[in-house]
Amino acid sequence: MTDQTPIQPARGCRDTPVLKERGQREVFCGLTGIIWLHRKMQDAFFLVVGSRTCAHLLQSAAGVMIFAEPRFGTAILEEKDLAGLADAHEELDREVARLLSRRPDIRQLFLVGSCPSEVIKLDLARAAERMTVQYAPKVRVLNYSGSGIETTFTQGEDACLASMVPVLPETDARELLLVGALPDVVEDQALQLLGDMGIGPIRVLPAHRADDELAVGENTVFALTQPFLGDTHAALERRGARHIPAPFPFGDEGTTAWLAAVAAEFGVDQETFERVTAAPRARARKAIAAAAADLNGKSIFFFPDSQLEIPLARFLTRECGMEAIEVGAPYIHKDLVGPDLDLLAEGPVISEGQDVDLQLDRCRAARPDLTVCGLGLANPLEAEGLSTKWAIELVFTPVHFYEQAGDLAGLFSRPVRRKGVLSL
User: Fold this and answer.
1) Class of 19-25+287-422 per CATH?
2) Given this model, what pLDDT does residue 207 score?
């Protein structure tokens, strides 16, 4: 097939000096990832080993009704556990046994570490190994950390998927692995586009069920759908799988470039590629144009939060006509976001990590038309007259691939349009 690589700016941001900040951060807890992961994996249960605060966070974030029976819960660490007056491992074993006896549908159990369990050094990895032996082969027990002490909220998904990779079966088959939790409707669209090009077999991590055919080996090639999966990327490469680097599938251009990279790997011809992508691409362009009318010429400032910042800045500047002042990300993994940095024209400050007071000073001085930030900063900035967009909304809303491109642009255009209406 012919080259579908987007036209690059004269100077991209891959080699732009990165402002590295290591001060006070404003981040959301990594346990939040359970809210979308438990919906994706239909036979999994996420048992958070933490405090009542962890339980309240999950309950309020998920909005679970009192009569619902979700696939997550909290093993509460009481004062006697934190003080070392009880054997936490014995109590955890008892809670797990009670859970599995009540919920025979569970095939995968994740022991999720939190701030309290990490502070008292509770060895959940050892507990998971012990329980795997006890409950195999019916239940597979894994563990990962969702603690907010050192991580941002999307890293909960990364840690979860990375914990699954080492136990995947080995395969010699040449297969495409799509990596990253997407809403079912978006995942179905991606699989349809790739299938219509004749690409297959295709597997998805995370799979809906533990017994879905999912394996990895040296003939596996994988494409990431989320830019925050650095640990999962490394775990797959350790298993011999090979990454297909590409811009992330946000907007028309990003989706086309992502699909083109996968198509090139599987030898799809240009005629087939155009036949499959032409109609949805035209719909995406039309939908983006409708929202971009309110964004063209407007400035945007990204606080580090979700790790979606760099691909979104590429989308907004190239497809919606915005000017990026600063693009902050919690971590910058150039093996993942390098293709997006290549397309992001030189100009904005690229920052990694956070010193929230210093970044607030830069934001206030710049007075951007729109600021993307966490919940804790949005209301204070709105009170100062700055329009904001919650970063967490970009993770909970379907925004990938062609059919969601207009919705993605609309998430940014609405607060800008609202500000204009209120100022009349």
Assistant:
1) alpha beta
2) 94
